[in-house]
Every structure is written in structure tokens, then in C-alpha cells.
Amino acid sequence: MKLLDKEMSKGLKGDAGTAADVKMYPTFVGPLPQQSDKEEFLVLEVNLPRVELALVRLQDHNASVIESENYIPTTGVQLDTLERLSGFIAMCIIKFTKKRKPAGKEWPLALIFPFPCQHEGPDRACLVKWTKEVTCNDVEGKELHGLIRGALDKTIVHIKNKSAKKITIVAIINDTVSTLASAAYNNPDCKIGLVVDGGLNACYYENGTQTKCLQDEKVMIINTELGALGENGFLDFCRTNYDKELDECSSSPDSQILEKMVSSMYLGEIVRLVLEGLTRKNLMFRSVPLVCNLFLRGSFNTDYVIEIESDNEGPHQRTKQILDHLAVKDYTDEDVKNVRHVCSIISERAACLSAASLATLINHVNLSPVTVVVDGYMYQRHPRFQVMMLNKTRELVNPELKFHLVGPELKRSIGAARIAAAALRSGNSLTDTPGATQDRGSSHTEPEKPSQIGL
Ligand code: GLC
Q1: Nearest CA owner, ligand 1 atom 8
Q2: Mean pLDDT for the stretch of residues 12-23
Q3: CB 152, CB 90: distance < 8 Å
């Protein structure tokens, strides 16, 4: 907690290019109005390789997702270059808007982009680096608004579809920020958003005046990107050899060190490495065949961890099915119990590290009472994660501060639409001119099965 707090202060004071592990990116999102005129927004969420589009309506105090749809690339198509990725995103937008008409003259679009970005304004952001094992060439360091606008314009020419002309990107938003904006709609005490998903990250309303980024703005949401803690080696004292091996084999070694100990993208693989290590030391699965899926990288995903920990203590039926599926033969009852034990230790460590991160933020924000919205796969799906995290956070938060953890009541696309509405109203978003690639710039319907899109 001390290390994170120190890195957060460093990140806040310097510009984001400093050596702070935790960059504390200003988002240009301030306090949001509790109501709005009748407006409709397109919200595009990029969770690669999946892209979700939603049409969100705001009216007075109400907000609803009118329609939404998921898209994935056609089997075999890799989104591994800038051109393929931006082309795919443009096609998804065009497909979604094709059969619909904008409420006004244009479609204002909010982009939820869950990766570290350096903002120049609400609608202008450069991708700093890919995280969560995404690799796509030539996008890091690029300004996203211009990329998507350019891809839309190109697609208009190719497929002679004019609908893309009417799309105006008005906000680019981190997933933690849209989650916070959704929760703060009905709960103005909500000042912190935490996501424990494929990645680990948090954002909060900063009102410190001492920070360089907030000279003109009094209150602004800061995207901490705290999952990066440890990149300078600060967490080496509590990393195991399994953590180090996982990091070395990842697509981004030495990066996102805390995230790699916590998030669902990595937990299953940590468990697998521990089980493999114990097996090779002849401490488990004594008669396991040498060629066995358990020894294959990526064969043990985080769903398994969740299923094993949700399994019935007695018969351990599901755990046995998973071991059979991994071709682990002749396991004993003790092996089965030990698998569960390893899963629970790794999950508990993840919950404690998430709690320590959250408690640091709650202490930093120093408001009482304060509400924290928590979202993400680990938090929502794991049978004990919520309780473990809540108990540990209680131990670690300053005793005089009261806090509540809440789950997301509304979809995060609603928060994104609120931010887009505020950006439009304040005139802060830089308008984009179709054709000019050099831009200056719960009432939800569940999305259906993703449609596949070719390029
Ligand atoms: C990764 C991304 C961050 C995102 C988080 C949760 O940490 O870098 O931007 O918020 O995952 O999706």
C-alpha cells in the first residue's frame, strides 16, 4: 500500500511520461450532470477481439440501452495490424448503424477503450501500450480518434455507405471510468471505480489542487492504471518464481506486474504453473504421464479456477472432470483436494492484492462515506472473491473512513453516454470532419451472439 501510494503521488505530480509505475492519466471527465435532455448515443466498447456496439438513450433522469450487438472477426482473421483493427472497428460501426437512423442529424459516438491512454481532451487519446496480451502492430503511440475516423472514411469510399459520415466521435473513455460514471448516475457518493477483470485497474475523482494535471480543472477523474505497479521491480519481494515465469512467457514481459498477479487473464495460468511445479517435484499427481495437457501453457483457464472453487466440497465432481479433460491420469483424492487448495490460495492472494489497491485509493480520496463501484469477471463470478476482498479492505482502510462497495447496476455503456453528453454540452470535444483523417481531434437488452465480420 505504501509503495502504491508513493507511485500514485509521483504519477499525479509528474507528467505521465515520468518513471512512476502508476501513471495516473487525467481523463478530462469532471463531475457529470444527474439528468440530460433527450439524446441518443452510440457506444462502442473494444474488448478485443470482441467489439460491442450499443445504442443508449438518455432522457431526464432515465437512461437505457435500446439495442446492443456483439461482433467478432470471421474465424481465422487476426486483428494484428493497425489497418485490420481499425478496418474491423469501422465495419462494426457501419453494420450497426446501417439499419438505424440517428435521433438528430448525427450519431455522437463514445468509445470505451480499456487500455492505457494519454488524453489531450475528452475525445482525443493516444494508446500508450497494449495490455492484457493484446498485440496489434503500429497502434501504440497513435491517436485513436484520427485512426477510427480515417478508417470510417476509407470504408465509406469502399462500400459506398454514407452512414459513417454522420458519426462523430465525442469521447474516448477507459472502462473503469465508464463504470464509475454509470454507478455515479444514481449514487453521487460513488467516487471510485475498480475493475477486476481480464485486467486490474481503478479510477477515482481527484480533487487535489497540487497536481500538475489539474491546474485548470478542479475535479477530474484520474485513470490510475494501477495494474502496472511493480514494473520498476518494487513488487519483486512478494513475487514467486511462478509469477516471474508467467511474466517472462507473456506478450509483454516486465509490464503490468500487479495485474498479472490478480486478473482473470492470468490466474488460471499461475495455478497451472504451480500444479506443474508440484508435479515435477513429485509432490502431486505421482503417476501423471509426461505428455499431459497440464504441462501446456494456457491449458488451465481462470474459468477452471472458478469452477473448482465452486465445486461441491465432498464429491469434487467438476474438479475431476477438469482433470480428466487435461488428461491427468490416476489422480488420488488427495490430489483433487490439493488442486482446490492451490486454486483457493492463488484467488485469495488476488483478492488481498485487489483489496490493498482499493484501500490505498479509499485512504487517498479521504471522503467519508464513500461508495466504490466494483465490476469485472473475478469480482462477479468467483464464489469467494467479493467477501475476501471486502474483509481485507475493511482491515486496511483508515478506521475513521466509511465506505461501501457496490456492484454495477447499470451497464457501463450508460456511463459512457453520460460522459459523451457532458463533452458535447461543454463543447470540449473537438468536432471531427468526415473526410479529414487528420482530426484534431438496468434496463438493458442483452447483446445477442456475436456476429462475425469479414474484412
Ligand atoms: C488493463 C488496462 C486498463 C483497463 C483494465 C481493465 O489494466 O490497461 O486500461 O482498465 O485492464 O480492463
Answers
A1: 115
A2: 78
A3: yes
CA–CA separation, 36 and 404 (whole Å): 27
Cα–Cα distances in angstroms (integers) from residue 374 to residues 31, 162, 191, 194, in the given order: 19, 40, 11, 5
The pLDDT tens digits of the residues spanning 235-274 come to 999 999 999 999 999 999 999 999 999 999 999 999 999 9
Rounded to the nearest integer, the mean pLDDT of the chain is: 89
CA 56 to centroid of ligand 1, rounded, Å: 23
Whole-number Å distance, alpha carbon 284 to ligand 1 midpoint, is 35
Query: Alpha-carbon Rg of the chain, whole angstroms?
Result: 23
CB atoms within 10 A of CB 395: 11
All three cell numbers of 218: 478542479
Q: What is the mean pLDDT of residues 154-179?
A: 84
Ligand 1 atom closest to 199 (CA): 11
Probe target for ligand 1 pocket from 47, 50, 201, with the most ligand atoms within 8 Å of CB: 201
The predicted-structure confidence for 397-447, as pLDDT tens digits, reads as follows: 999 999 999 999 999 999 999 999 999 988 755 444 343 333 323 434 445
Residue bearing the CA closest to ligand 1, atom 4: 114
Write the residue with the smallest CA distance to atom 2 of ligand 1: 115
Question: Rounded CA gap, 308 and 17, in Å?
Answer: 42
Residues with CB under 6 A from ligand 1: 114-116, 131-132, 174-176, 195, 197-201, 225, 227, 259
In this structure, how many other beta carbons lie within 10 angstroms of the beta carbon of residue 454?
A: 10
- Distance, CA of 227 to CA of 231 (rounded, Å): 10
User: Is beta strand 50-60 parallel, antiparallel or unpaired with respect to 36-47?
Assistant: antiparallel
Alpha-carbon torsion (185, 186, 190, 193), positive or negative: negative
CA-to-CA distance for 164 and 106, rounded, in angstroms? 10
The residue nearest atom 6 of ligand 1, judged by CA position, is: 199
